[in-house]
Amino acid sequence: MNWPSIFAIVRRDLPVVARAKAVMIPLVVLPIVLFVGLPLLVSFGLDAAGSELEDLLPLIEALPESIRAHLGDGDLLEQAQAYLLEYQLATFFLIVPLMVCSVIAADSFAGEKERKTLESLLYTPTTDRELYFAKLLGPWVAALVVTLASYGLYLAVCNLVLAGSIGRPVALTPLWFTVVLWLSPGVAALGLSALVVVSSRVRGFQEAYQAGGVLVLPVVALVAAQFAGLLFVDTAMAVLLGAATWVVALGVMALGFGLFRRERLLERI
What we know:
The protein has helices at residues 3-19, 21-49, 57-61, 65-71, 76-92, 95-106, 110-115, 118-122, 128-166, 174-201, 205-212, 217-227, 235-259, 262-267. The chain is mostly helical.
């Protein structure tokens, strides 16, 4: 691998992405909506629920004993807040790396075609594998940065605004650390591996971005299944999900390396 050439492409791509409004607006708005607005809505909504809060009692009672022990011995309101903020939103958090990947990876080759800069990129002194890897590395690093920033924002909101109602620090748990540092990077790698292939085969950013939206559906299904009580993601399951995600991501990445040919990109300009 010619690492100086790879890093040069990454350094070239990220400022271009930062100047594109179609890319940056979702990257700014999404974390604010999910990790400022959503926890506030959850907390204040539970406070205002009154007697309707009893509807969550079957969900709390169905939780595994290890999770119920972590929720503490408080009243139903405190237990419901702790469960939603520390468990339910931990799986919801996986939407962040996927959406970042969907936006940035969709711009990787499709955006180059729209900006008429693809030809100059393809004539750089890099191999096909190095070019493909560079187009993976830049969005992956950006996804990690946005993921860590989103987690920091979530910690600030939960622990400065909402922790008093629970009585202890929120989201500083092994589950959250596993999701942020292990599962989210794997999800980002899997999404990128698929989306860079898609971006190389379509003609424009919007086509690639719309295709990327499909990747969010498994996370939405996971969130819905957990909320319905069909499964519960704890630290052990997050570790297993992360391992499975990384295995699939590396497999898709290897397939992408095998299929990628720069001359095919010129045929689709």
